[in-house]
Fold:
Amino acid sequence: MGVKIVVREDESIERAVSRFKRDVIRSHAGDKWPWCRSFYASPSMLRNRNKSRRQRRYSNGQ
Structure:
């Protein structure tokens, strides 16, 4: 099953892929596509990643 990722002209392929992954996680496509469950991080890993991102934002603010 192919998945089409739209890459904008002003962004790199890596950013497009990461944006696509974010959209998939946001729409919980793992329920519809079995491979998303294994391909993307588990909920606990996502939670930890959000935590670290929050800390990074605070450190940038200082």
Remarks:
- The chain is about 65% helix and 0% strand.
- The CA atoms of residues 18 and 36 lie 14 Å apart.
- The first helix runs from residue 13 to 26.
- The helical segments are 13-26, 34-39, 43-61.
